[in-house]
Design brief:
heterodimer, B: mainly alpha, 66% helix
Chain lengths: 91, 137
């Protein structure tokens, strides 16, 4: 039980560390994540949404439908908790 | 070699956290410990994404300066363009905000299910539950 799982962990860690060898440097301002899409939001956020906080403008404006769906997730989780934890009458 | 380690050790930290969480999920028999492992796993992924938004060199949070009040009108003069290198990448922050919400939702449902299991079987040990259910040992 324990030995095979440790072997799986070691294999997974080795594969992941092998994957990080090609990752961009930490804090590289020209990394792929920081150079394609995100400058557009930083440059046009004020023009489009008049909001200085870019995180807010992306969350509530550009991705508004996603946030709306997120409230569905919260609602579903809350209803599941209520239905699970409700004391049932002894019948 | 040393520069390579300095540039990449953050990823290895998150891999370590992720392995700890995955190990707890796989081998622990207590359901609460499994849930804690799941949270450590999710936290590692959130740290990984947040670290990808860092830019070196005088970078602040992605809240634009000189933008309060008449921001939309200020752009008409075209006076200042936003210096992208001055602000951290906002998109990982947004995505992880969503992921934190999902994490809290799964944590709540998992704890509720654990409470229900405890009410029915009066234990949270996985093997005792399986025995009580009359399944395999």
């Amino acid at each position: 039980m324990r030995t095979p799982s440790i072997m799986i962990q070691v294999l997974l860690a080795a594969a992941l560390i092998y994957g990080t060898l090609d990752m961009p440097k930490w804090g590289d301002p020209h990394s792929p994540a920081a150079s394609h899409v995100s400058p557009y939001y930083l440059e046009h956020s004020i023009e489009h949404t008049a909001t200085p906080n870019v995180v807010t403008s992306v969350l509530a404006d550009y991705r508004g439908y996603d946030t709306l769906g997120e409230t569905t997730v919260i609602f579903t989780a809350g209803m599941a908790c209520i239905l699970l934890l409700k004391r049932r009458d002894k019948s | 070699m040393f520069d390579f380690i300095v540039d990449h050790y953050n990823y290895w930290t998150y891999i370590g956290l992720m392995i700890i969480g995955f190990y707890a999920m796989m081998t622990k028999r207590n359901l609460i410990k499994k849930i804690i492992g799941m949270n450590i796993f999710q936290s590692a992924i959130i740290f990984f994404f947040i670290s990808s938004s860092v830019k070196r060199g005088g970078v602040s949070v992605p809240i634009l300066e000189d933008a309060h009040g008449h921001a939309a009108h200020g752009m008409e003069h075209g006076a200042h363009a936003v210096d992208v290198m001055q602000y951290a990448n906002p998109l990982p922050h947004v995505l992880m905000l969503t992921a934190i919400v999902v994490m809290v939702a799964t944590l709540g449902v998992a704890l509720a299910v654990a409470i229900m299991i405890y009410r029915k079987y009066h234990t949270l040990e996985e093997d005792e539950i399986i025995t009580a259910m009359g399944g395999r040992d």
